[in-house]
Amino acid sequence: MTEPQEMIAWLDRRIASAETWLADHGRRSKKPRPEMEIEIKEYDIARFEEIKAAYVKALAKRDAS
Length: 65
What we know:
The chain is built from 2 helices and no strands. The chain is elongated, with a radius of gyration of 15 Å. The model has no long low-confidence stretch (mean pLDDT 95). The protein is mainly alpha-helical and 65 residues long. The longest helix is centred in the last third of the chain and has 30 residues, at 35-64.
């Protein structure tokens, strides 16, 4: 199994990557990408954050037992 800190770091990198993409190609950029692509990146960020929160919660529960 992947080490918990490595998994959290990986999720943080995925979130940061998607946020950078939005900053570079989102609605406020000079040449924004199509709305569907922007919505997909926003959806990806939300899911990665949700996965990270659930993972951290499960780790805390495991460590508490």
